[in-house]
Amino acid sequence: GAVVSQHPSWVICKSGTSVKIECRSLDFQATTMFWYRQFPKQSLMLMATSNEGSKATYEQGVEKDKFLINHASLTLSTLTVTSAHPEDSSFYICSATRSTGSTEAFFGQGTRLTVV
Amino acid sequence: GEDVEQSLFLSVREGDSSVINCTYTDSSSTYLYWYKQEPGAGLQLLTYIFSNMDMKQDQRLTVLLNKKDKHLSLRIADTQTGDSAIYFCAEDITGGGNKLTFGTGTQLKVEL
Fold first, then answer.
1. Which of A98, A116, B6, B41 has the least CB density, counted as fewest CB within 10 Å?
2. Distance (Å, rounded) from C-alpha A62 to C-alpha A56?
């Protein structure tokens, strides 16, 4: 099966600093990646759709200047949380699809971000 | 709008069947999915069903879809302790684009 890897698995950072989270498709090329956010005991909320070589599409209410997404290659998308604050503490999960029309999205293992 | 609702918690005894229910509001959903999430981990796709089907069986898993009532269920036969996890249903209204709207999640606890 296809493997999607996120790095790091967990990170603790100081308030005001920036954190970069990587999402890699290890054995396939992903034209589209999605970034989700999950608060404790809640569902996943889609933050943005990341397309290789173009700007990300953000969902309503998600600050694009705070959550910078870069999809520079077919196997890597990055999410940078800029000037992180404690309310940004959450579980961030990415998913990747092989191509448009594929029935399955493959999820990374998630990144637990804690801002202190 | 796209609201997907699930009951929050289900407890069953080992060996019994579990039925997890999900209701959705968007009738244009093309694919509906069931994912499993273990503590601190990402999501594992269990199964999915195309919107023109009403049932799909995959080993211990049976998915039922009532499109008229916008109701989806996941039945796990012979539930084991390893099945304890949070189960999410999700709908894709983009026709396979994989932009998913997730349900609220059901925590399944399997007791001995």
1. A116
2. 12
